[in-house]
């Protein structure tokens, strides 16, 4: 992977030259984004592939409207979870038959945590990161409650995790890239540490899949989950994914035993008999329309080189940090992400006491990032459709807002629900 | 409700006259079905509303493509489960704030069964119908296994259910209309019997919602689940629904404790604090595109009179039985559904030793029904888009197939996966 150096004082001309030389630049044309908008929120909801509209039309009018139930076979609806999983697998270092696309990330985490807990009956602690996106920790609490308190959930911060793993540990379940700060956990080291202690390693890839190289099998990960609507551009709430290492398939079982996870779903047998493979992690009928659009995003990613994606991602985030610190110096921003690009995902967060109105003013100026309470402004840089000039322009607009005090205007101060 | 009498020997002219007089006939134009196809499988996957295509286009290109994350608020994505639930509620006799649209039927059943089991800690039997669509029984097994065998699942057939309820019963969880035979359970009587014994009554409405009047609150039901892609025309795999009676909200808790079920989902609190209302039964992000299309189907249903739907449904199924028994007499069909329309949902099944090739030949002739092993041919009659002449024409084609021995042709005998 090429490491792109950022000049001491980058200017617009340098950004323009970088865009011209960018090997990923042609892929920008495969997305539709509103004219003039700089979209730095692909880590919340990825941009729309141009093909999505025609695909949705085809699925609705032909697959559903014309072919109707025949499409379960003829359009391959039944096999979508597995077929899309196989397509996604190379992006996260998984093999064929190890990934399925289905349900939501929360549900998939419930399944893999339940499976892991059952695989370590003599252990009683599950380790998660305390400052993680809360749903992971809530789900872990729910699994613990459902087992009648057979185990407890221990919340650690980043640097405490390795030290917390011991002979009582069932599993560590960590989000690879932190949703708020963007810090990256060392998947290989934590997995090895967990397994050396006889524990399992479960990875949440919501903020890494599609944005950076992930090597689940290279790291010997046990389970993983993640979403497809952020950097994978699957559309709002598109089904999530789930990875079960080959060695666990047939051994690992999840408790929501629906008919899609049955060994013979169409035999309509009276008793449940689990599939021996990955499909035991399926439950019931999938939302086909949302599911089919996952493929349009995956197809773009599969035509890109992941090393180039990472290289550009590091450069864009380095550039953004440098420009904000230069051009908004003295305006109270404190970097809330790792300064070292290697320790950072594809996002940058700054803390600012007035983060909320600043983000509102920035959104009004056409630069879309998001705000995370209490004081974080967060910016995601999806290398497939964000360019160097976009970064330049985003900081131009931010600097204008700070210098002009625009964010102090009443319309930016008013609170509303923030997504 | 008007009970429509079928003549002793119905002819095509009578069917044509009935179609002309049908108050629901104008609604047929709000669906797209392929020219010449007679679609009698709306109990598997409902037909496509004409509005679905434009709706999908708008959601993909404008709500996703242009408005991006803003749509979580501006397009009301966050509130879709509740808003669509409120829209669906009157179709099943529920009140506002008692129904949400989310996840799959299997998942929703897992949630309500888990909640019910926790509400009856001193009881140890859950009663289901043995011949029910198997996923319900599989899910019940899964809930039992997850609680370490705290309770057992007792499978009864239709007439044994009431007698099986006793002081050990946690709940009865019954599918209102049987997926295969179409028999209707007496919701009021079974609910009353269960509650008299201190048990809960849980109803699966997959084969009744949208096809016949359902009165959950009139029957004092405790919980219900159901799907939106059959008679409600929500599209392939569209999210299911879930009903929690007002009196149980805040008392009933489900174990998949994701962030959408948290009392303050955007406060990102470290610990789980359940919503006190219906939203505790939400888990995580919903498949928005599939979800939005549920509304196009609901809007058509809300413009129809449910008494007229039921009246026509009974007439269509009565007519179909009469015509098959007259025109295919001596060809080996045995009625596998209740003969009394009042005891039947909106479907008719016949048993036939050669049901599989017969259904294949019929499908090849443009009449779409389905086959359920080992010997059932099943026909659904969605009153919003199936007419009397459709029934006449379907039996014409069936009679031609039987009289001509068409189903004996090799191409109809070959087995393939049946959906």
Short overview:
The first copy, chain A, has 419 residues and is an alpha/beta fold. The first copy, chain A, is 36% helix and 13% strand. A 7-stranded mixed beta sheet of chain A has the order 4-10-9-8-7-5-6, with helices on both faces. Chain A has a 4-stranded antiparallel beta sheet with strand order 11-12-15-14. A two-stranded antiparallel ribbon of chain A has the order 1-3.
If you had to describe this structure to a student in words, what would you say it looks like?
2 copies of one chain form a homodimer. By secondary structure, chain A is of the alpha/beta class. Chain A folds into 2 domains: 122 residues, Aspartate Aminotransferase, domain 1, CATH 3.90.1150; 250 residues, 3-Layer(aba) Sandwich (Aspartate Aminotransferase, domain 2), CATH 3.40.640.10. In chain A, 36% of the residues lie in helices and 13% in strands. In chain A, strand 5, helix 6 and strand 6 form a beta-alpha-beta unit. In chain A, helix 1 packs antiparallel against helix 12 and helix 10 packs parallel to helix 12. Chain A is globular, with a radius of gyration of 22 Å. At the A-B interface, helix 2, helix 3, helix 5, helix 6 and helix 9 of A face helix 2, helix 3, helix 5, helix 6 and helix 9 of B. Chains A, B: This is Kynureninase. Chains A, B: Homodimer. Chains A, B: It holds the Pfam family KYNU_C.
């Amino acid at each position: 992977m090429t490491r792109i150096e950022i000049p001491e004082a980058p200017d617009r001309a340098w950004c323009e030259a970088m865009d011209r030389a960018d090997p990923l630049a042609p892929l920008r044309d495969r997305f539709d984004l509103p004219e003039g908008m700089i979209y730095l929120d692909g880590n919340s909801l990825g941009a729309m592939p141009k093909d999505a509209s025609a695909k949705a039309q085809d699925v609705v009018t032909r697959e559903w409207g014309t072919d109707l139930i025949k499409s379960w076979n003829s359009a391959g609806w039944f096999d979508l979870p597995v077929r899309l999983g196989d397509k996604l697998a190379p992006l996260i270092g998984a093999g064929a038959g190890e990934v399925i696309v289905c349900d939501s990330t929360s549900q998939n985490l419930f399944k893999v945590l339940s499976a892991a807990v059952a695989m370590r009956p003599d252990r009683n602690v599950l380790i998660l990161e305390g400052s993680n996106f809360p749903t992971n920790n809530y789900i872990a609490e729910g699994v613990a409650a459902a087992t009648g308190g057979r185990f407890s959930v221990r919340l650690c911060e980043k640097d405490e995790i390795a030290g917390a793993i011991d002979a009582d540990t069932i599993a560590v379940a960590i989000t690879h890239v932190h949703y708020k700060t963007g810090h990256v956990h060392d998947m290989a080291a934590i997995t090895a540490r967990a397994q050396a202690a006889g524990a399992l390693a479960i990875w949440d890839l919501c903020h890494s899949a599609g944005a950076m190289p992930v090597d689940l099998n290279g790291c010997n990960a046990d389970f993983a989950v993640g979403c497809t609507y952020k950097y994978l551009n699957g559309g709002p709430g598109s089904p999530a994914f789930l990875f079960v290492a080959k060695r666990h398939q047939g051994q690992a079982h999840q408790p929501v035993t629906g008919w899609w996870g049955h060994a013979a779903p169409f035999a309509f047998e009276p008793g449940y008999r689990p599939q021996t493979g990955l499909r035991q992690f399926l439950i019931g009928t999938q939302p086909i329309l949302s599911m089919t659009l996952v493929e349009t995003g995956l197809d773009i990613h599969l035509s890109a080189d992941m090393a180039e994606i990472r290289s550009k991602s590091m450069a864009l985030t380095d550039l953004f940090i440098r420009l904000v610190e230069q051009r908004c110096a003295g305006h109270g921003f404190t970097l809330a992400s790792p300064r070292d690009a290697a320790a950072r995902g594809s996002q940058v967060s700054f803390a600012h006491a007035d983060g909320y109105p600043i983000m509102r003013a920035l959104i009004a100026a056409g630069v879309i990032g998001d705000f995370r309470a209490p004081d974080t402004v967060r910016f995601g840089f999806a290398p497939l459709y964000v360019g160097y000039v976009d970064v330049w322009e985003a900081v131009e607009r931010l600097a204008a807002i700070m210098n002009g005090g625009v964010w102090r205007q009443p319309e930016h101060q008013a609170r509303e629900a923030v997504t």
